[in-house]
Amino acid sequence: MSLPPIHQGPSGGRRREELDLNEPLRLTAVVHGSVQGVGFRYWTWRHAEKLGLRGSAVNNADGTVGVIAEGPRWAVGELLKALNSNDTPGAVMRVDSHFGAATGGFAEFTTG
């Protein structure tokens, strides 16, 4: 007996060719782990700059790093992939992420 797939298609039923990879998108992420005092924000800034993204990476009081990045869907996806990689400084335990519409509220990528 075979079961039907859980997901009928990519991106809520849209066909892959309908997905605009240049569509402006906003990533909001909270990075958990040993990510403060190890150059993580600087590393994130460098990756974001290479991808042409705008936004920020800031230390939060609870020891996490908050990342907001806006730009083309493909570039935002690449940054999220990098945040989840083994190449980050420190030790990333988990990345909680959310995607939404870009607001255009950033002129560049900054750290704080």
Automatic annotation (TrEMBL):
Domain Acylphosphatase-like: 26-112
Positions of region (Disordered): 1-20
One Pfam family it belongs to: Acylphosphatase
Catalytic-site annotation from UniProt: 41, 59
Domain of life, source organism: Bacteria
Coiled coil: none
E.C. code: 3.6.1.7
Signal peptide per UniProt: none
GO molecular function: acylphosphatase activity
Catalysed transformations (reactions): an acyl phosphate + H2O = a carboxylate + phosphate + H(+)
InterPro entries, alphabetized: Acylphosphatase, Acylphosphatase-like_dom, Acylphosphatase-like_dom_sf, Acylphosphatase_CS
Keywords, alphabetical: Hydrolase
UniProt family annotation: Belongs to the acylphosphatase family.
Protein name (database record): acylphosphatase
Organism of origin: Kocuria flava
